[in-house]
Amino acid sequence: MNRRRYLAAAGSAVAASLAGCSAVLPGAAADDYDVGMTAEAFTPYEITVSVGDTVVWENTSTRAHSVTAYGEQIPADAAYFATGDYDSEAAARDAWDGNRGAITSGERYEHTFEVPGDYTYFCIPHEQAGMVGVVRVEE
Fold it and tell me: Are both 108 and 87 inside the same structural domain?
């Protein structure tokens, strides 16, 4: 009986002492990023920002990911964006074969949006699983 009380008390003490630790782990709510990456999704799926804002993506999963704009699904005058700083969707896809352009767990990528409109992007290795997102840029 005393052993059960001890274990219950010890378990409660450990849980209480670790309760604040999640705020310092990568991907925790206290991190300063706009879009997180789970195993096969961007969260949130859609984000709305103003012209001139910078969006920060953070890989909050254990898998390697990319942030790759669909070249045909961004405004005509907009700068292309992709992890690895490729200048086209084709270049980003070609480079992925060697995992170039990947961001790993805890790493970040950011892009500043200067042209209003909708920007659809995806993760190259998880595109077939539906890992797609949208940045809506308003004036």
Answer: yes
H helices of 2-126, in order, are 2-18, 89-96
Structure tokens at 118: 């909708």
Rounded distance between C-alpha atoms, residue 126 and residue 38, angstroms: 11
Q: Same structural domain for residues 45 and 10?
A: no
| Exposure string over 39-70, b if 16+ CB within 10 A, otherwise e | ebbbeeeebebeeebebebbbbbebbbbbbbe
Q: What is the pLDDT of residues 52-93, one digit of tens each?
A: 999 999 999 999 999 999 999 999 999 999 999 999 999 999
Cα 31 → chain centroid: 12
pTM of this structure: 0.77
